[in-house]
């Protein structure tokens, strides 16, 4: 199956999925991300304990790409260490900026790698990176408090 059809299927599947789309019972990190140019808006909620993301979810509205990218990101970071989540966000953003990734790095991104071709659609890039930037901002905010 070629990347385009995998991409279309993934976007469709994840944008409709409600698995991660709800409020967490007791998040200890919550940050809103907005894309003013198209109206996408998410609130990312994380439960971080002992340096690990025990749980993660989001609520919000937006296009299929922003919703799917957020869902895929949560699949990747849930249960991972904060350091690993930051590493994955860095890889994803590098990929979208068309920086060369190694084969191992591509594999680390798992399903998120299917979003690679969004880098060829400048109008959609902000949609794809909204949740990843929001995740980075949430971690920076916490660092600032410590």
UniProtKB/TrEMBL annotation:
Gene Ontology molecular function terms on file: iron ion binding; iron-sulfur cluster binding
Alphabetical list of NCBIfam families matching this protein: SUF_scaf_2
Family under the similarity heading: Belongs to the NifU family.
Superkingdom of the organism of origin: Bacteria
Annotated ranges, domain NIF system FeS cluster assembly NifU N-terminal: 7-91
Protein name, as recorded: Nitrogen fixation protein NifU
Pfam family, one: NifU_N
Organism: Anaerovibrio lipolyticus
Biological process (GO), any one: iron-sulfur cluster assembly
Coiled coil (UniProt feature): none
InterPro entries assigned to the protein according to its UniProt record, in alphabetical order: NIF_FeS_clus_asmbl_NifU_N
């Amino acid at each position: 199956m070629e990347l385009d059809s995998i991409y279309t299927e993934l976007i469709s599947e994840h944008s409709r999925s409600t698995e991660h789309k709800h409020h967490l019972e007791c998040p200890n990190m919550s940050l809103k991300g907005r894309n003013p140019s198209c109206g996408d808006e998410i609130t990312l909620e994380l439960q971080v304990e002992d340096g690990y993301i025990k749980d993660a979810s989001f609520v919000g509205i937006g296009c299929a790409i922003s919703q799917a990218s957020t869902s895929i990101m949560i699949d990747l970071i849930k249960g991972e260490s904060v350091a690993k989540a930051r590493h994955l966000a860095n890889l994803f953003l590098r990929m979208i900026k068309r920086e060369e990734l190694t084969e191992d790095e591509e594999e680390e991104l798992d399903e998120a790698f299917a979003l690679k071709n969004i880098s060829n659609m400048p109008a959609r890039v902000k949609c794809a990176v909204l949740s990843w930037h929001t995740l980075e901002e949430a971690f920076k905010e916490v660092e600032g408090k410590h």
